[in-house]
Amino acid sequence: MLKFYFNGSPNPTKVALFLEESGLPYEPMKVDTRKGEQFAPEFLKINPNGKVPAIDDGGTIVFDSNAILLYLAEKTGKFLPSNRAELLSWLMFVASGVGPFSGQAVHFKHFAPKDQNHDYAHNRYQYETDRHYKILDAHLKDRRYMVGDSYSIVDMAMWGWARMVPFKLGDDAFARYPNVKRLVDEISARPAAARAVALKDKFTFKAEMDDEARANMFKHMTTKVA
C-alpha cells in the first residue's frame, strides 16, 4: 500500500486531497516537523530534503508535492488535463512561485523574531504573494478551472495554498481575489477536501511553537552560513 508522509501544512494537504478524490488506498505516515521527525535517518532516505510530503509507492519514492500530484495523476489517469503544456506551465507556476512566496509571507508575518527589523523582507514577500494571487485571479476570471474545463491537479495544487490566503495576507485579503476565492470555496465544499483537511486530526502533532519547535523548523536561526 502507498505510504503517504505528511503533516497538516499546505503542501501535504493538497496531496491528501488527490488521494481522497481518487480513492487510492494509502497509509498515512505522520511526520511531526515541530519535533524534528523530518530529520530522522529513516525519513531522510525517503526525502533527502527533509520535508513533507513524500510517498513510497511500493518502492517508488516521490517527494515534492507537485511532483507527487503529477506522478499520481499519470499513474491513475485521473484529474489530468489533456493540454500538457498548459498543465505543466501552471503546475510549475504554483511550485516555483505561489508556494515559495506564500511560505515566506507566512514566515515573516507570523514567525520571524519580533525583536528584529524584518520590514524589507516582510514587504517583499507580501508584495510577491499578492502579485502571484492577482495573476491567478486574472486567469480564473473567465474560466471555472485552472486548465481546461474540468477539475484537475492544478486546481488541487492551487487550493493547497490559496485556502490559507487570510493567514498569509490578512483577514480581508480574499476580497482582492474573488475568482480565486470562488474556486477555493468550490473545492473546499467537496467531501474529499473535508477529509483531506481532517486527516491531521486523526493524529497528535506538537501544537506549541516553542524553542524546540523553532529549532527544528527554522535552523537558520542558530546556524550562520555567510
Provide an overview of this structure.
The chain has helices spanning 10-22, 41-44, 65-76, 84-111, 119-139, 153-162, 165-169, 178-188, 191-198, 211-217, and strands spanning 2-6, 26-30, 54-57, 60-63. With 226 residues, it is α+β, with helices and mostly antiparallel strands. The chain is globular, with a radius of gyration of 18 Å. The mean pLDDT is 97.
Annotate the secondary structure layout.
Elements: E1 2-6, H1 10-22, E2 26-30, H2 41-44, E3 54-57, E4 60-63, H3 65-76, H4 84-111, H5 119-139, H6 153-162, H7 165-169, H8 178-188, H9 191-198, H10 211-217
Parallel strand pairs: 1-2
Antiparallel strand pairs: 1-3, 3-4
Please describe the structure with a list of short key phrases separated by commas or semicolons.
single chain, 226 residues, alpha+beta, 4 strands, globular
Report a brief summary of the structure.
By secondary structure, this protein is of the alpha+beta class. The protein has 10 helices and 4 strands, in the order βαβαββαααααααα.
